[in-house]
Amino acid sequence: MDITVNDTKFKFAVFLFTGIPGQEDIYLWISVPFCLMYVISIVGNSVILFIIKTDPSLHEPMYIFLSMLAVTDLGLSIATMPTILGVFWFNSREISLDACFAQLFFIHSLQCIESSVLLLMAFDRFIAICNPLRYTSILTLPRIAKTGLVFVLRGVALIFPLPFLVKRFRYCRANVLSHSYCLHQDVMKMACADITVNNIYGLSVALFTMGLDSLLIFLSYVMILKTVLSITSSTEALNTCVSHLCAVLIFYTPEIGLSVIHRFGKSSSPLPPILLGYVSLLVPPLMNPIVYSVKSKHLRVRIIRVFVK
């Protein structure tokens, strides 16, 4: 499928996904746990949203932030499900360039938004523990809505240029991507052009969003720990942070590892970045509702009450 434009020859008009190399014979079996993970993620996050929306006693900052996290996780699951299940279930490996660029926009913007939500949740815990008397006056509903909107706009605005930055390239190299979905750092390597601008911009966005957010989350927990060690009910205070810390570690650890491997790694085996990629996109939406349901007594009681009825 050779296309000639301005005397420059394109070898490919599509990208090809990579599943798990060497395991092609058992793709249908591999699709079963992937499908199960998606079902649990979608049902779990939907239940969290339903419980918080229908129970007025949960209309407080901590649970509003949790509902924001659930919406973001649902978005991530929906953005990656068609291509991942398409590869393993239907053995469909092709994606058009425009569809790929659209998917990378949604994946990266939703990841930036999730990072922002985790930062807001850290701020919520910081105020609740370090300045409890001003908690309700600082975290008012209008302020939460405005802050959430600002962070959503930040994620969308910073990621918006990425599809256009990769769309301007001519793709005349091997068109096989490293994953079963499109990422900017993966797609730009397929271009037969200088990708310095993409590299610098992509790294800058990652540092300004996830890098800055993770640093602020770390600083907030330093302050929380300092406050907790000076009060008597330290165990109870720290218990409210455990679920958030789990969510932070689940999200940032594979994300940072994958970013480092893509930009600086020279691994001889393609398996580590592939597996880390699946962990970074599938595990947070799967684990967040489980962790919060287990660790939050109020939420757990209400979920049990709904299903017992």
Describe the protein.
Residues 44-292 form the G-protein coupled receptors family 1 profile domain. One of its GO terms (molecular function) is G protein-coupled receptor activity. It is found in: Cell membrane; Membrane. It is a multi-pass membrane protein. The structure is a single chain. The chain is mainly α. The chain is 73% helix and 4% strand. The chain contains eleven helices and four strands, in the order βββααβααααααααα. The chain has helices at 27-54, 61-89, 97-130, 135-138, 141-159, 161-167, 184-187, 196-228, 234-264, 271-295, 297-308, and strands at 3-5, 8-10, 14-16, 94-96. The strands form two sheets. A two-stranded antiparallel ribbon has the order 1-2. The longest helix has 34 residues, at 97-130. 36% of the residues are buried.
Feature tags:
two-stranded antiparallel sheet, single chain, 4% strand, mainly alpha, 11 helices
Topology pattern, helix = H, strand = E:
EEEHHEHHHHHHHHH
Number of strands: 4
Radius of gyration, rounded?
A: 21 Å
| Amount of helix | over 70%
Q: Within the largest sheet, what's the order of strands?
A: 1-2
In CATH, what is the class?
A: Mainly Alpha
> What structural class results from the helix and strand content?
mainly alpha
The number of domains: 1
CATH topology: Rhopdopsin 7-helix transmembrane proteins
**Strand fraction:** under 5%
- Molecular shape: globular
CATH superfamily: Rhodopsin 7-helix transmembrane proteins
Q: Give me the number of helical elements.
A: 11
Span of the ends, CA to CA: 58 Å
